[in-house]
């Protein structure tokens, strides 16, 4: 059984509520989102340990991991475009931390901690672990209490081993002095988090491993000569064997007031850094089946990025307001290509250029490859939705006639700077066709116009693809029955005609829909007091006109009926005209 030793000089342990964690209750899970745009770079390493971003010099530093057994001899340096600046030869470098003034990058390997100039990328020895503590485990570095701290495992038992210790490096460059300040018999790996806004405070966390399923977070006082335990937080009853925290990553907000934790079991937690209690508002749960792996705040404090290993189309990266109490709008990214990494690696998120660029190190399920994604302008997006059902006009849409679809798009947040447009498609028995875009008015209304070309069922889908401020809206659809176009026959017959004299009058065939093809014929029937007779057919000209020619021989009322039988796209129609036939016209 593992025996836990605690610093005797501080009898205080914070009495905090157990369980829970700052997860938003009753809120929707992170939705599936877009594929990340921007640059993707295959990293020339077989493992991954840490990423540090130097915003002042626009550099991204990446080190491989030793815990996997790899001893890659390099530190990778990229610029903010994702282009490799330099591959620094440095065997077994793992832990890194950037000084508060940005003038030094500290890098730990198995034998020492080195100070690099982030501009020239040259190094000098900071502290050499003479006669130990050399090891083959990843180190974690942190700056707190005017000291540089590092983790060490004296047994080289990296995963689940109890030999982890916390050491501090003292003295100027090339000083070989060292001091072991903190020994706490907890399995590792250990993780450190510190903030310049919290001088003299540091958070230590451990990963959940077999036989130790309920690790905690520990507030360390680093202000004095010796480190002191100032508080702790467990997420299951402390002495129980119940599963508690499964720490994957943690990060302080830039102002030091909040600590975000990527908990592989419970999601992304948001805690008050003063006592590790739950923040008033928490983050939404991740996608179903997702395991949180990373978390990072932008340096301006506006945004937080939450990384996961999500199955299927679940969101692997969610960007939102750092404080969820100020708004829950998100921007979600889906990593669905194994050849570019389909999940966020542990500790695989970092920001650059304040909140304008997000860097993500991704991997695959086998952890056999690693990629660097550069995501430009990953700001969270406001919601957009179609309100109600689409309306149609006219009430009886016909083939070849003008059809109007009307609707309303609701946009949360500020009004867009550019006109918003929606797109639409029509799908019928002939397939799918894209219609012209429609501009959304300031009140959110829009009208999509179409001219259906086929009789029968047509399904219209209206979409909003999102913009620089809003997420895409869920499509809205409407199925419409397209009828045959109506037709009319009009006759311009005279009121009177003379017996035995030729009668010639015009008529016209018209439609409210698709154009009537050329070469049509109308039939003409004459009805007199002596009986009814079909006179034959009359050709219809291209403009729809035709002529009725007859010589009436019976006195009295003569009725001419002209009929068109219709076709596949048009209804039939007919019209009649009565002429008074006599000896005098």
From TrEMBL:
One of its GO terms (biological process) is carbohydrate metabolic process. Keywords: Signal. It comes from the Bacteria. Gene3D superfamilies: Immunoglobulins, YVTN repeat-like/Quinoprotein amine dehydrogenase. InterPro entries: Filamin/ABP280_repeat-like, Ig-like_fold, WD40/YVTN_repeat-like_dom_sf. The keyword Signal applies. The keyword NAD does not apply. Residues 1-24 form the signal peptide. This is Ig-like domain repeat protein. It comes from Streptosporangium nondiastaticum.
């Amino acid at each position: 059984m593992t025996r836990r030793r605690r610093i005797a000089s501080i009898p205080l342990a914070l009495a905090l509520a157990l369980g829970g964690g700052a997860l938003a209750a009753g809120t929707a899970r992170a939705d599936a989102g877009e594929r990340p745009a921007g640059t993707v770079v295959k990293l020339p390493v077989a493992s991954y340990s840490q990423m540090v971003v130097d915003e002042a010099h626009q550099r991204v530093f990446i080190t491989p991991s030793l815990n996997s057994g790899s001893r890659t001899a390099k530190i990778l340096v990229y610029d903010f475009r994702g282009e490799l600046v330099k591959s620094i030869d440095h065997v077994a470098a793992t832990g890194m931390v950037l000084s508060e003034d940005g003038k030094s990058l500290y890098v730990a390997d198995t034998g020492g901690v080195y100070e690099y100039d982030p501009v020239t990328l040259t190094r000098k020895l900071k502290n050499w672990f003479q006669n130990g503590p050399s090891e083959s485990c990843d180190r974690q570095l942190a700056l707190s209490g005017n000291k540089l701290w590092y983790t060490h495992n004296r047994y080289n038992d990296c995963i689940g081993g109890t030999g982890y210790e916390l050491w501090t490096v003292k003295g100027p460059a090339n000083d070989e002095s060292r001091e072991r300040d903190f020994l706490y018999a907890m399995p590792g790996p250990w993780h450190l988090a510190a903030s310049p806004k919290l001088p003299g405070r540091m958070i230590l966390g451990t990963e959940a491993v077999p036989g130790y399923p309920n690790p905690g977070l520990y507030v360390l006082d680093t202000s004095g000569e010796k480190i002191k335990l100032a508080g702790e937080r467990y997420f299951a009853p402390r002495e129980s064997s119940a599963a508690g925290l499964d720490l994957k990553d943690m990060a302080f907000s830039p102002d030091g007031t909040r600590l975000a934790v990527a908990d592989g079991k419970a999601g992304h937690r948001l805690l008050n850094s003063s006592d590790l209690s739950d923040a008033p508002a928490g983050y939404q749960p991740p996608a179903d089946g997702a395991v949180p792996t990373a978390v990072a705040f932008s340096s301006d404090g506006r945004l937080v990025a939450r990384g996961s290993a999500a199955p299927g189309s679940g969101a692997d990266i969610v960007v939102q307001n750092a404080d969820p109490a100020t708004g829950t709008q998100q921007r979600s990214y889906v990593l669905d290509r194994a050849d570019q990494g389909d999940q966020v690696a542990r500790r695989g998120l970092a920001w650059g250029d304040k909140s304008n660029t997000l860097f993500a190190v991704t991997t695959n399920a086998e952890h056999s490859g690693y990629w660097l994604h550069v995501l430009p302008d990953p700001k969270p997006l406001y919601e957009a939705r179609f309100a109600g059902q689409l309306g149609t006009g006219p009430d009886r849409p016909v083939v070849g006639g003008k059809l109007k679809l009307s609707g309303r798009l609701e946009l949360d947040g500020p009004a867009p700077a550019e006109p918003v447009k929606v797109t639409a498609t029509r799908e019928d028995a002939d397939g799918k066709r894209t219609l012209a875009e429609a501009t959304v008015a300031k009140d959110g209304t829009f009208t999509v116009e179409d001219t259906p070309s086929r009789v029968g069922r047509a399904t219209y889908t209206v979409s909003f693809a999102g913009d620089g401020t809003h997420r895409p809206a869920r499509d809205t659809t409407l199925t419409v029955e397209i009828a045959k176009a109506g037709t009319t026959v009009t006759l311009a017959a005279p009121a009177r005609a003379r017996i035995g004299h030729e009668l010639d009058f015009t008529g016209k065939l018209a439609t409210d829909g698709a154009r009537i093809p050329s070469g049509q014929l109308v039939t003409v029937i004459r009805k007199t007091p002596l009986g009814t007779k079909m006179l034959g057919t009359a050709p219809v000209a291209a403009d729809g006109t035709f002529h009725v020619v007859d010589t009436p021989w019976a006195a009295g009322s003569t009725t001419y009926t002209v009929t068109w039988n219709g076709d596949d796209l048009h209804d039939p129609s007919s019209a009649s005209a009565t002429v008074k036939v006599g000896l005098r016209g």
